[in-house]
């Protein structure tokens, strides 16, 4: 049954994604607001597909702050990369460069405000990333990052990527750790999705200005509190 649900979800979601991308491209030409409206409609559509086709619900623990902050989230599945865009009120995502290289989608991600991280880039690439990050912070939007760098299996708690502490210092915003439990319904190593509940746990903001060891310890500890292990 889970395989059938997943097949239907794949056909419906990715089939409808094509006209959404086309609409977003047109919206991007018209301006930021139309493009954001289309992208948010798309991620909302994804949430409906996950709920009504796959049987995946969401549960939120803690309070999502309304002020500008730096969200640092656990990453177990593609689900939260889309769901958080709506849940966090148009945040600026920090993305791997490989994602922004995808035709059409990558251009839209850049237009949306995404910050591309090229781990193999040189000094010029780093300066461009820092300049863009400062511009996004100045715009008043919150930033969201997956500080472990990639999706991980449930029970896995890798160290944070070295660049996280540098971004924390540069943006000067309070950090809100977000524990996420999604890998049990959206496995990394299987195309089959399973019914269940994705849980988010939002922690109280951690103030800016802490040293690297302290901020990494506190964020790492918080985002891993839901690990089944």
Automatic annotation (TrEMBL):
- List the CDD domains hit by this protein, alphabetically: LPLAT_AGPAT-like
Any GO BP annotation: phosphatidic acid biosynthetic process
Query: Which residue windows are transmembrane per the record?
Result: 6-30
Per the record, the pathway is: Lipid metabolism
Which SMART domains does the UniProt record give? PlsC
Q: One matching Pfam family, short form?
A: Acyltransferase
Q: What GO annotations for molecular function exist for this entry? A: 1-acylglycerol-3-phosphate O-acyltransferase activity
Keywords for the protein's UniProt record, in alphabetical order: Acyltransferase, Membrane, Transferase, Transmembrane, Transmembrane helix
Q: Phospholipid/glycerol acyltransferase domain: which residues?
A: 69-183
Q: Which InterPro entries match?
A: Plipid/glycerol_acylTrfase
What's the protein called, per UniProt?
1-acyl-sn-glycerol-3-phosphate acyltransferase
């Amino acid at each position: 049954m889970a395989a059938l649900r997943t097949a239907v979800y794949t056909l419906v979601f990715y089939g409808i994604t094509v006209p959404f991308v086309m609409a977003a491209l047109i919206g991007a030409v018209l301006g930021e607001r139309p493009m954001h409206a289309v992208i948010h409609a798309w991620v909302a559509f994804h949430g409906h597909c996950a709920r009504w086709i796959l049987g995946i619900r969401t549960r939120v623990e803690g309070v999502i702050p309304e002020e500008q902050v730096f969200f640092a989230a656990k990453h177990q599945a593609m689900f939260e990369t889309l769901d958080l865009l709506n849940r966090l009120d148009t945040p600026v995502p920090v993305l791997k460069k490989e994602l922004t290289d995808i035709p059409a989608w990558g251009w839209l991600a850049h237009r949306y405000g995404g910050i591309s991280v090229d781990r193999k880039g040189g000094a010029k690439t780093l300066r461009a990333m820092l300049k863009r990050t400062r511009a996004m912070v100045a715009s008043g939007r919150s930033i969201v990052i997956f500080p472990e760098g990639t999706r991980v299996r449930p029970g896995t708690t890798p160290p944070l990527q070295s660049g996280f502490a540098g971004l924390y210092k540069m943006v000067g915003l309070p950090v809100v750790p977000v524990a996420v439990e999604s890998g049990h319904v959206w496995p990394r190593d299987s195309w089959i999705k399973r019914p269940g509940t994705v849980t988010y746990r939002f922690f109280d903001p951690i103030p800016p200005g802490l040293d690297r060891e302290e901020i990494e310890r506190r964020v790492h500890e918080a985002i891993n509190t839901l690990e089944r292990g």
